[in-house]
Design a protein that fits this description.
Layout (H helix, E strand, L loop, with lengths): L2 E5 L3 H12 L3 E6 L11 E3 L1 H9 L3 H7 L1 E3 L2 E5 L4 E5 L1 H7 L3 E4 L1 H15 L2 E4 L3 E6 L4 E5 L4 E4 L1 E4 L6 H7 L5 E13 L9 E4 L3 E9 L2 E9 L11 H9 L6 H6 L7 E7 L11 E3 L14 H19 L3 H30 L4 H13 L2 H12 L4
């Protein structure tokens, strides 16, 4: 039996293990953390990711624990709507996205992996690998080794597998930092998502149902800037407290200790992802800014396509991985660039450029908005 060793137990790594088990490949996930605890507040699984999960028989389970997202809206900080894609137009053309908490998605994936007979080994960080032309061996932080027919580096932005393949080049700082959190307004208030634009800042809100919201916020900032002395919540209220409701209420309803903050990075697309019996997946291959909400979605797509290519390869691992990269590199490079461009537009700070941006978005017809989403949401794995 072909054996795949997967470095990284995030969404991409777990989905890859499930997809490979579905085609009869032995799959072992190596995760450096001592427990699989998904970091992050919430996640939007766009239609393209849901179609990929449908291929694995998981879409129904995800829909059952999530909430179908309805439409899309861009506002200004004062609440005025710049642009809106109605729910019926989005659903008629593509289908519906699903939003849920990241830990809930991870639980679905772990249960599916266990049911499929895959293995997740915790406390087993991958420090590198060696290969001999017929197999590849992952070198673990514990001193142990894990041998397989292929190694998939799904170990994130600062992937050790990528580092060995292509060197230790630093990722590109996008110029802004981001906060994320979950809030329960406890007043029965519900609602659909929107993204509000200011000058050099964005605030996004996604309704999870029953008064719960996942939110994110950004500001232009130097790389590595520390938190404000007064704390994250106070800094956020200082920046967004005068924005339209429910933005201030959502920030106030979030526990200080539950507010996550990360500088935002991506990388230039690679001309190749691997060598021999080794390849990359997800953020290890194509980290992108979060502006299109496609990071995890592209990793899920990667996983399904990788498994298909391994099946088509019929035992020729190197040919299978070359086919996988050939199929995935152009698409993911396009999404990286689109996301980067949207981030630059959303983070504009110059007052005149913001006025011009807002005017352009306000007059954009619905058909053009939908056409711009075609390459992302219309994709079939």
């Amino acid at each position: 039996m072909t054996k795949a060793v997967i470095a990284g137990g995030g969404i991409g790594g777990l989905t890859a293990a499930i997809a490979l088990r579905r085609i009869g490949v032995d799959a072992v996930v190596l995760e450096k953390a001592g427990e699989l605890r998904e970091i992050g507040a919430g996640i939007s699984l766009w239609v393209n990711a849901m179609k990929a999960l449908e291929r694995l028989g998981l879409a129904g389970t995800v829909r059952a624990i999530g909430r179908e997202e309805i439409g899309g809206k861009i506002r200004l900080s004062g609440g005025k709507t710049l642009s809106e894609i109605p729910a019926d137009a989005l659903e008629e053309r593509f289908g519906r996205n699903v939003v849920l908490q990241r830990p809930d998605l991870q639980r679905v994936l772990l249960a599916a992996l266990d049911e499929a007979g895959g293995v997740a080994r915790l406390g087993a960080g991958c420090l590198g690998f060696r290969q001999d032309g017929a197999s590849v061996t992952a070198l673990l932080s514990s001193g142990r080794e894990e041998r397989g027919d292929l190694l998939i580096g799904a170990d994130g932005l600062n992937s050790m597998v990528r580092k060995q393949l292509f060197g230790n080049k630093e990722p590109r700082y996008a110029g802004f930092t981001a906060w994320r959190g979950l809030a329960d307004l406890r007043d029965g208030r519900d609602g659909d998502g929107f993204e509000a634009w200011g000058r050099g800042s964005i605030f996004g809100l996604v309704g999870l149902g029953q008064g719960r919201f996942y939110w994110y916020a950004t500001k232009n900032a130097p790389e590595g800037q520390p938190d404000a002395p007064e704390g994250r919540k106070a800094e956020l209220l200082g920046r967004f407290g005068s924005w339209h409701e429910p933005v201030p209420s959502v920030i106030r309803a979030t526990e200080e200790t539950q507010i996550l903050r990360n500088d935002i990075y991506d990388r230039e697309p690679l001309n190749r992802w691997g060598e021999g019996h080794v390849t990359l997946l997800g953020d290890a291959a194509h980290p992108m800014t979060p502006n299109l909400g496609q990071g995890a979605c592209q990793a899920i797509e990667d996983a399904v396509v990788l498994a298909e290519c391994v099946r088509y390869g019929n035992g020729d691992v190197q040919a299978a991985l070359e086919l996988y990269e050939e199929r995935r590199r152009p698409r993911t490079a396009d999404v990286v660039r689109r996301s980067r461009l949207l981030g630059r537009v959303g983070q504009l700070e110059n007052p005149l450029l913001c006025v011009m941006r807002n005017a352009a978005v306000r007059v954009m017809p619905l058909r053009l908005q939908l056409r711009q989403l075609d390459p992302i949401l219309g994709y079939e794995t």
